[in-house]
Amino acid sequence: MKSLCKSATLCALIVTLSLIVGCSDTTTTPDTSTTDIMPLKAGNYFVYNNYRLDSLTGIKDNSSLRVDSIVNGMSTSHVGKSCYSFDTYIAGVKTATDYFAKESKSIWSFSSLLPAGISTSGVLETILPQGNRWMKIADYASIKDSTWAMYDTTLTNLIIPGLAFPINAVISMKGKRTADETITIGTKTYTNAHKFEVILSPNATLSGFTIPIGTVKKYMWIADNIGIIKEEFPPIDIQVNVPGVTATRFRSDGFVKELKTYKLQ
Q: How far is 29 from 212, CA to CA, in rounded Å?
């Protein structure tokens, strides 16, 4: 994806990133008396600790630690929205450019459902909406436990690993606002963490039969005047029951991404 940033700005951001990947947990942010649901400004950066969640126990594997970063680029317009670009770095290597936009009291992301560098079971990768698209990931105007549509589509002739014949699937993806929480990451406690869910509910059809695949969820915590401080994709454990065929079970690891340090311009 072509970046709209000027080359000089990109060089400056990459140099900035190289300085912060190995830095301590020091956090800097300007003094502000206003509430910003997600600060967007060129030069902002965020560094995250990323861990694997074991597929059987759900426990964080501390030995799997990987340090990832995102760097806020320039303001631009992308696929119909005024937004800001964000370059994603996986273990110090740039892997993607995504986009974030704010509209009134909502946050939109032009990205895939799964962050770059995350792999899952074959069945989940098959039924997940492919490619990048605008998705409303947070809605502060919604009331607690209310949902909004993020993405709905029908996929045909899907080849599911373990099944000898193709199926059709109806994919429904919704966002949900839950209760605000106080969470602690390392030595830092966030008292204004707004929790949101992404709920993926696929159902397959074969010869007139509906085949429930199960619900997949992803969680996100956003702190006022900071941005995304934590994401969690629990391990996947779903079972596909096709009439007349032995049930096929799919398991895969999850992940948790926690804010290590950040800087706002």
A: 46
Q: Residues for the chain: how many in total? A: 265
Q: In the block, which residue shows the tokens 């956003």?
A: 222
Structural element, H or E, at residue 187: none
Predicted structure pTM score: 0.79
Q: Which residue, chain included where needed, has tokens 């995102």?
A: 70
Q: What Cα–Cα distance (Å) separates residue 140 from each residue in 70, 117, 173?
A: 23, 29, 18
Q: What is the residue whose two structure tokens read 């799997």?
A: 64
d(CA 139, CA 198): 12
Q: For 79-166, where are the E strands, in sequence order? A: 81-90, 93-103, 106-111, 133-139, 147-158
Of 14, 70, 41, 56, the closest CA to residue 262 belongs to 70
Q: What is the pLDDT along the chain (265 residues), one digit of tens a residue?
A: 444 333 333 333 333 333 334 444 445 444 444 789 999 999 999 999 999 999 899 999 999 999 999 999 999 999 999 999 999 999 899 998 999 999 989 999 998 765 555 555 555 566 665 678 899 999 999 899 999 998 887 777 777 666 677 778 787 889 999 989 999 999 999 998 999 999 988 777 776 677 767 788 999 999 999 999 999 999 888 777 766 666 777 788 889 999 999 999 9
How far is Cα 107 from Cα 264, in angstroms, rounded to an integer?
Answer: 18
Contact 212, 239 (CB under 8 A): no
Paired tokens of 176: 């949900």
- Dig out the tokens for 215 from the structure: 């619900």
